[in-house]
Design a protein that fits this description.
The protein is mainly alpha-helical. Helix content is 55%, strand content 10%. Strand 2 and strand 3 form a beta hairpin.
Length: 140
């Protein structure tokens, strides 16, 4: 095939079944977007240890803002992964815990977090080497 060959020879929907509305796997991207974002992963890892109050979560997750934590737990609650419980006290107390579906996910997310921790130095070294070999290619 020449570099100027531009004819499409394959239906893109065959390569990416989620490109078709009627394909049963079309929801995969939406789910992976939620559980794959860094804040959701960190919230799930933290809640794997048991229920937490909002401020406990915020203190445990370095760098997360109050707004981002609020959005993250709301999205996880909407997806049925986190249960928010409000206790009738003055002032009201709220805690967050994983649902059965969220708990079912924890071993996968924890494995990913453990892998990230174990390989962070190697990845940092690889990034540094790449950046040195490709100055001006800021791809962050």
């Amino acid at each position: 095939m020449s570099p100027t060959h531009t004819a499409v020879t394959t239906d893109p929907a065959e390569l990416d079944p989620c490109g078709r509305q009627d394909h049963p796997d079309c929801g995969i991207r939406d789910v992976l977007d939620r559980i794959g974002d860094k804040w959701s992963v960190l919230v799930i890892v933290e809640l794997a240890g048991g229920p937490r109050r909002f401020r406990e979560l915020q203190r445990a997750i370095d760098g997360i803002s109050q707004r981002m934590l609020t959005l993250t737990v709301r999205r996880l609650e909407r997806d049925g992964l986190v249960l928010r419980t409000v206790y009738p006290t003055v002032p009201a107390q709220v805690d967050y815990r994983l649902t059965d579906t969220g708990a079912d996910l924890t071993h996968l997310v924890k494995s990913l977090a453990d892998w990230s921790l174990a390989h962070r130095t190697t990845i940092a070294e690889a990034r540094h080497a790449y950046d040195q070999a490709h100055p001006g290619h800021d791809i962050r």
